[in-house]
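Predict structure. Input: YwbE family protein, 65 residues.
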Amino acid sequence: MNGQLRSTISAGLEVDIVLKQDQPTGKLTRGIVKDLLTNSPKHPHGIKVRLTSGQVGRVQHIIQK
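Output follows.
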């Protein structure tokens, strides 16, 4: 699943995000969602979230468990 729809993302979900500094390379960081930072229902580049580690980035993939 991709991370463009806010309704599919919630706190506690495991996701892959791209950090701001990694956008040119597309390097992904995996973590658990702590907060949703994007207020709009969808975003073409991914919903912005804060992970439990404190890192902030846009969701690229939702990890299915």
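The radius of gyration is 10 Å.
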